[in-house]
Design goal:
By secondary structure, the protein is α+β, with helices and mostly antiparallel strands. About 25% of the residues are buried. It starts with a helix and ends in a 6-residue tail after the last helix. Helix 3 packs across helix 8, helix 8 crosses helix 10 and helix 11 packs antiparallel against helix 12. The strands form three sheets. Strands 1-2-3-8 form a four-stranded antiparallel beta sheet. It is globular. The chain contains twelve helices and eight strands.
């Protein structure tokens, strides 16, 4: 009996002295601890929900919302469901994120290139913009632009541009397009033209790699995309009209209104992120060897052509990864819209949460949506980064 106990103690001692066995034991203990913590959180949450008379689940998304949304891309009324209201908020978030990313990219690339200019005044002006914008909290910038826009004249004193575009403290009222029968064919020919332009571009690229001869890809592609669609548009009797806004005694009739909250959020996010992108672009350009520029100039290439054909393609290897992070930051910063009343996904979700009391479900939807937007953006940028990577022969 004594020998058996002694052998068992020796085996346990050997097992504890084995590094792999000890590591496995610690991992099992950590997993058990996490499982117990999750079980405790779930049980506690269920008990709290039952105490408040709330049923867990997402069935509340089918209940009527009973609140208005002033900025919407799809049909919505106060009698619509919570689920449709959340979809409207999601589209508003995607709209401001897409507008902000495009505008910030343009601002960042232009500012980044201009900051390397030899013009003393331009360099100083861009430096002031970058240093001021990126060192002031984006929330303050959003509120600043919103205050500027809401300080515009009232509806009765709207500023008119050409009698079709009106500016006032309620936003920008502009003509709304009315798609008539047959306009779908214009869209079809336009898309087919884009496909043809892509095919021509690939052919021109292979031809240039094989023979060194260039092809006016941009102008040919532009012609293929626009000319056939324009001809169909004329032949079908111009199936597109405009609903021009008319000013009434208290408001406008017709047209499409862009709220000052959307414009303020869009512009603040674009200028703030554009300042960071400009520094990324500047660093990317400086990372390209100066010998590349000297060699291009020695071959007789103009500075603009050298920048577009030689420097930028190589700089993109450095620019794209941090650029992706800025796109993700812009999308997440759009949730600050709640500060000025722009009804994005977070703002509308907050209203739904207050009316339904389903806090966990609403927060989980916020997390899933922002995670999906971030992963989608990252996947696209990673694909683009791999697509433009230099291939050694």
């Amino acid at each position: 009996m004594t020998d058996v106990t002694r052998d068992t103690g020796l085996k346990v001692g050997r097992l504890w002295s084995d590094e792999r066995a000890r590591s496995a034991l610690f991992q099992i203990l950590v997993v058990l601890g996490l499982a117990l913590l999750v079980a405790f959180i779930v049980a506690n949450t269920m008990a709290n929900l039952q105490a408040r008379g709330l049923e867990p689940g997402y069935g509340f998304l089918g209940d009527p919302a009973f609140f208005e949304i002033n900025q919407k891309l799809i049909d919505y009324a106060s009698t619509s469901t919570f689920g449709r209201a959340m979809v409207v908020g999601l589209l508003n978030t995607i709209l401001v994120a897409a507008l902000g990313i495009v505008t910030a990219t343009v601002i960042g690339f232009v500012a980044g290139v201009l900051r390397l200019s030899n013009n003393w005044l331009i360099v100083r002006l861009i430096s002031v913009y970058v240093e001021f914008t990126r060192n002031v909290p984006v929330l303050l910038q959003i509120v600043f632009w919103w205050s500027i826009l809401t300080g515009l004249p009232k509806v009765a004193d709207s500023l008119s541009i050409g009698g079709a575009l009106f500016l006032n403290n309620r936003g920008v009222r502009m003509p709304a397009p009315i798609l008539e029968s047959g306009f779908g064919w214009v869209v079809v020919f336009f898309l087919l033209g884009i496909v043809a332009a892509v095919v021509i571009g690939r052919w021109a690229y292979r031809r240039q790699m094989a023979t060194g001869q260039t092809f006016p890809t941009f102008w040919v592609g532009l012609g293929l995309a626009v000319v056939p669609a324009l001809l169909i548009y004329v032949l079908l009797g111009q199936p597109l009209s405009w609903d021009v806004p008319e000013q009434t005694r208290f408001n406008f009739r017709g047209g499409f209104n862009v709220t000052p909250e959307l414009v303020a959020l869009w512009w603040a996010l674009a200028t703030y992120t554009g300042a960071f992108i400009s520094e990324i672009v500047r660093a990317g350009i400086l990372s390209v060897s100066k010998g590349q520029t000297e060699a291009a100039h020695a071959l007789g290439l103009r500075p603009g052509l050298t920048m577009r054909k030689i420097i930028i393609p190589q700089a993109l290897r450095v620019i794209i990864p941090p650029l992706t992070s800025q796109y993700l930051n812009l999308t997440k910063n759009s949730s600050l819209a709640i500060a000025i009343g722009y009804q994005d996904f977070v703002s509308i979700g907050n209203t739904v949460l207050n009316q339904s009391g389903q806090a966990i479900e609403v927060v989980s939807l916020w997390m899933v949506v922002y995670l999906s937007l971030s992963l989608g953006t990252s996947a696209f940028m990673n694909w683009y980064n791999k697509h433009i990577a230099l291939v050694e022969r």
